[in-house]
Structure formats: structure tokens, C-alpha cells
Amino acid sequence: MTVAKAGSKWRAYIYDGGTAIATRTFDNPVDARAWERRMKRQLAAGIDVVGAVKKVQEWLPLFLEHRREVVAASTLQRDEGVCASLPAWLRAHRVCDVNPQVISRLIKSINGSPGTKQRALITVAAFFSWLEGLAVVDRNPVRGIRIPRTNAIGAATNPFSWREVETMAPEGPYGDVIIVLAYTGLRWGELRALRARDVVIDDDGIATALRVRRSASDGFPEKAPKSGKVRKVPLMQRPALIISRRLRGLKPDDIVFTSPRGGPLNRSNMRRSVRWDEISGGRRIHDLRHTAACEWLRKGVDVATVSAWLGHASVTTTGAYLHLVSTDEERRLVTMLDERSAKP
């Protein structure tokens, strides 16, 4: 008998060659027999039943060890953060018992934005995909689970105007950084990784465009940009003059934007040096990227072109800026009406 009463519970046993290799206790015989049948099917299909009855927490260290060899440092950092924050009730689950319902419960338990939930889901999906590859589980329970999509360009987005950027940007290297970010829409890491050879120069020695090939977040090695593709960003006169000046004396592989002392840019150091919290009005450095997008659209550049310049995967993402632009236009019109109505 592979299902036997054990006190007030029922215990199911899985045998392989006469040896019990897995066991589990249930409140009733129906659940015990159902589990026994499922594990026997998995055993017959070549699944590592011994590994399947181990708990999630037993597999996590091995998963992270595997990830250290196959993913970028930034991805590993995300995975480590997600694994460390997994709730105790999920860690205590046997991996064979984690089903889509358990994953849905996990997602609901995560406090944070849809983006936070999505990042957690990506790591958990990678975890079970790895176990599936090891034949520890017969299916990935994350498969088919979807986080309701929301555009990343939402209420938290608060772009500057170019006039505001010009007013707040200080003189010096960090001021150049702020202005170039606001006029090119580059991400922080993309600007940090920009090299002299990535700048397109005309016959007069003036920078005309940037080829965004790499990205380098603070503390991490360079990698491909978020889109995974090289893109070309044309330069208006304002950032072109700054970049042309900074190119003087640089070799092709030299970094264009550095700290005042010549080292790699560091976001925290720049924020502290320019007193960002005081001059930004509560905005983020990433809002400089949103500034470029909104100003381009406001000046008449079409959405598809702005999408290409920003390196968005979808025009739909870029289209969300239209809401910000239209809101700004509505405010301008209301102000105009107020001014006109105040006249006799």
C-alpha cells in the first residue's frame, strides 16, 4: 500500500525499485492518492521526484549560483533581491506543489507597482524554468500568468521644460550632463557608456548625432542598451555644441562624459554636487529623458520618430507621452483664457 493512515492524517509514499524516495502527509486519503498518482506519472516521465519534493528554499541557493554564471550583474542583483524577499510560506512549499494558484497568491502579496510585480515574476519564472530544465518539475507554474500591463510613463512622470533645464543646470561638467540628457533622451547608463567613436561628426567637426550602442549603470559593467539594439539620436545645436567641445583631445575609445575629476559618472555624486533635491522640484534624473520626449512631441516630431530616438520597443509606450503633452497644452490654453478674460 502506498497510501496509509498515520494517526489522524494520511501519508502517501512513492517507491522506486522497492525504495521509498518521497513521502507526504495529507488530511484525507483523496488528496493523498491524487498526489501519489501525479508523482508516479512524473517519475515515469523521468522527473527527479526526490528533487521535486524539496522545498523552494532548498533550491534557491543553487539557482542563484547558476545565475551567477549566465546572467549580467544587474540581472543577478534583481534575482537576489527577489529571492531574498520571497515570503516564508512560499519558501516552505515543495517545488512540485507550486502551481499557478500559488504564483497568483504570490503576485497579490507583493506590495509595489505593476513593474515591481513583473520583475518578481520574471525571476520566479526563471527559477522554475531552470528546475524544469533539470527535470525537477514537469511544468513551469508561471507559464500563462500575466501582470496587468500599465505604461511605465504614468502619473510619476514629471518632465521639465527645456527652459527649466537651462535655468537650473549649473556651469561645469555636471551641467553639461543635465542638459545633454534633457535634449537627447538618453538613459543615465547610456550617457555613462558614450564613447568618442559613438559621436557622428560632420565635415566642420560638429557633432550631429549619437549612436547609442552600450549602457553602463553605476557599479555594473557595460552591456547592450535596454532595447538590445543600436539606435541613432540626432543632435540639436544645444547638445551638439557641448558634445563637440568635450570631444577635443579624446581618443575614439575615450568616455565622453566623466566626473569633474575625470572618473566615471556616479549618479549619487552628481545629485549631491548639484544639490539635485533642491533644484529639481522633486523630479528624478530619469525625468530628463521624459523631458526630451515631451519637448520633441510638443515641437511637432511624430510619435514613431520619437519612439525610434528613445529606443522604445513599442510606439504604444511612446504614445503615453501624448497625454503629458496634451495636459501641458490644456494648461497653456486655460492660462491664456484667464489672461484674456481679465482684460476689460
TrEMBL record:
GO molecular function per UniProt: DNA binding
Pfam families: Phage_integrase
InterPro entries: CB, DNA_brk_join_enz, Integrase-like_cat_sf, Integrase_catalytic, Integrase_recombinase_N, Tyrosine_recombinase_XerCD
Domain annotation Core-binding (CB): ranges: 54-132
GO BP annotations listed: DNA integration; DNA recombination
Entry keywords, A to Z: DNA recombination, DNA-binding
Tyr recombinase domain sequence ranges: 155-335
Family affiliation: Belongs to the 'phage' integrase family.
Protein's UniProt name: Site-specific integrase
